[in-house]
Amino acid sequence: MSDLNRSVIREHERMACSLGARVTLSSESAEQVAYSGSGRRASEGIEVTVVDLSRGGAALRLAAFLPKGALITLSIRSNNAMLSLPGVVRRTQMLDRTPSYEVGLAFSPLDAGSLAALDRLTARKGAA
User: What's the rounded Cα separation, in Å, for the pair 83 and 126?
Assistant: First the structure.
């Protein structure tokens, strides 16, 4: 089968959601992101909305551009605990000139505890 005829099949089931979260960029990646007209630095964290979540990654909506390849940590508060998930930006798409972006990220390999917490979160949100 040629590459043109193959479909992309996701390894993990995705769950649509709307979760408040924060993205923190690695120090190397934070140097690539700047807020125009403010003294704020990207290393301080960026508020995001998680709109899609799976064991493999997430889709985020946010007001800041994140470059492809940026190393991040996604922090989601769940049951009074903070779930911190390391990942890498795989795609960024401008949605409108507000500005508003949708970012697709892939999680770095997660430990068993993080996977279990992520599974509990997606099961709870999927049942809601």
Answer: 17
| 8-state DSSP, 3 | T
Dihedral sign of CA atoms 14, 19, 58, 114 in order: negative
DSSP for 11-70 reads SS--EEEEEEEEEEE-HHHHTT-B-TTSS-BGGG-EEEEEEEE-SSEEEEEESS---TT-
In angstroms, the Cα distances linking 30 to 39, 51, 73, 105 are 14, 23, 12, 16
The CA distance from 104 to 22, in Å, is: 14
Query: pTM (2 decimals)?
Result: 0.81
Q: pLDDT tens digits, residue range 11-35?
A: 667 889 999 999 999 988 877 766 5
